[in-house]
């Protein structure tokens, strides 16, 4: 099982990765890799910056009727992963039609080079304006379900052309050095999803919340200044509290958004 709310299990065929864009700064996989190395796990014995494709994993038995997040501990389209290995991985997804596989990347430029089985959901990370260009590579693919993961959302990403996109996930950063996420950045994406009829999944605020804690505990605070680049008409000097992921929760203006792509797009049996 996994703690990632928008999937049910993870399937890690690749270990190791290297930082690629701003969203990688406090990489969760790197922290987890270190922990697994310390626990003596064979698959993670190499340092994080060594990219290893574990072919044996391709024949592993997976529980049926599951949403499977592929390579939560790396990036499937890392420069050091051969096209032939990616094709083997996609073939391994195709022969398991009862599962739906979710593949997420920051190396979007490689996406159009492959053909995707109908049970693969393909996504790109869009953590800031600069990386909106990844969406165009995603749109060039034949993937039946195309999604965006705006996590960790690092700024107001402005206008999004969501034509051809089937799902949008938003999340704030977690972990000890997490950066904060302004509510207006989230509202902007949620509003555009609603206008364009795209399912919206708000995963979490992350470590920081601008809701005043309802207990007397002292939390670390940070002030968000309106002078920050790329942001307009935000509330003056918004105060954030570092209350932790659980306490910060995932309510946006009192509402929970946990939507998934439309059922008719799913191929094979529905997940239980
Ligand atoms: S691409 Fe993903 S796994 Fe790789 S360094 Fe960046 S955040 Fe970590």
Describe what this molecule looks like in 3D.
The chain is 17% helix and 20% strand. It has 5 helices and 14 strands. It has helices at residues 28-38, 83-94, 133-139, 183-195, 245-248, and strands at 9-11, 14-15, 52-53, 67-70, 100-105, 120-125, 145-150, 167-171, 200-204, 208-209, 221-224, 238-242, 251-252, 255-256. The strands form 4 sheets. The protein has a 7-stranded parallel β-sheet with strand order 1-4-5-6-7-8-9. It has a 3-stranded antiparallel β-sheet with strand order 10-12-11. The longest helix is centred in the C-terminal third of the chain and has 13 residues, at 183-195. The two termini are 14 Å apart. It binds iron/sulfur cluster.
Strand content: 15-25%
Oligomer: single chain
Q: What is the makeup of the main sheet? A: 7 strands, parallel
| Gyration radius, rounded | 19 Å
Span of the ends, CA to CA: 14 Å
Bound molecules: iron/sulfur cluster
User: What is the helix tally?
Assistant: 5
Proportion of helical residues: 10-25%
The helix/strand series, from N terminus to C terminus, equals EEHEEHEEHEEHEEEEHEE
**How would you classify the helix and strand content by structural class?**
alpha/beta
C-alpha geometry: globular
